[in-house]
Amino acid sequence: MRLDYLTIFPDYLAPLGLSLPGKAVESGLIDVHVHDLREWTHDRHRTVDDTPYGGGAGMVLKPEPFGEAFEALGVDEHTTVVFTTPSGEPFTQRLAEELATRQRLVFACGRYEGIDQRVIDHAREVAEVREVSLGDYVLNGGEVAALAITEAVVRLLPGFMGNAESLVEESHTGGLLEYPVYTKPPVWDGREVPMVLRSGDHGLVAAWRQEQARRRTAERRPDLLAPSALDDGTPIERAV
Ligand SMILES: N#Cc1c(-c2ccc3cc[nH]c3c2)n[nH]c1N
User: Fold this and answer.
1) What is the DSSP secondary structure assignment for residue 50, as one 8-state letter?
2) Cα(136)–Cα(27) distance, rounded to whole angstroms?
3) Is the CB of 114 within 6 Å of ligand 1?
4) Which end of the chain, N or C, is more open, meaning fewer C-beta atoms within 10 Å of its C-beta?
């Protein structure tokens, strides 16, 4: 998978070099390119923004640099352009799984009051476009969301996680939150590891974990258990 990032703050995406193990890059599993949007400006001040039509506070990112960047990067029908935006569809594990099937992702990271709408409209004519929000809170730009989405997607790529089994029993995989986990010592702070986990009975352990996952989900995220209006009656897949 090739991953490109368009941003006016390229240093903000430096963690990509830390959070994605080098082996994933060296093995060719992922190919990461961060681009400073100002590469596609032509004035002395390298202008990327201007005041909003219709008035209002703040500045809007101009369309020309994005348009030239898409052209230069070869954005086409084989590309999925991800606009990170507070007005986007919620980012979920299901969307991460969907994006993990794409051969190329280009992240367009907004700042200020956002990106000129014509950039999104143009992108929809040449590529697949997803406008994605990290959640219902306000950030100052799209870079943090791009980092989070990247991590959630790349870790799903075959061969990225050394132990693929650990992907199976994770929160939100299968629709439930993850069960509590424990490791040595057997007693710490006067607290004992649940005996069932030390019983050696895999069936009992699996049943206990399933019940803990359901209980935790019911307590913290009842919305994950409630049938949605879109529910077609298909049973929610349970964590094993
Ligand atoms: N994704 C996402 C976001 C943002 C976001 C994204 C881009 C810009 C550009 C200026 N301000 C932004 C906020 N806020 N909250 C989220 N969940």
Assistant:
1) E
2) 36
3) yes
4) C
